Amino acid sequence: MAVQVTIYLNEADQWRRRPLHMEILNYLRQENVYAATAFHAVAGFLGRHRVKTAHMVEAGGKLPVVITFVDTDEHVNRVLPMLKEMAAHRLIVRENVVLEQGNLD
Question: I want to staple 41 with a disulfide (CB 3.0 to 4.6 A). Which of 9, 64, 103, 105 is the partner?
Answer without folding.
Answer: 64
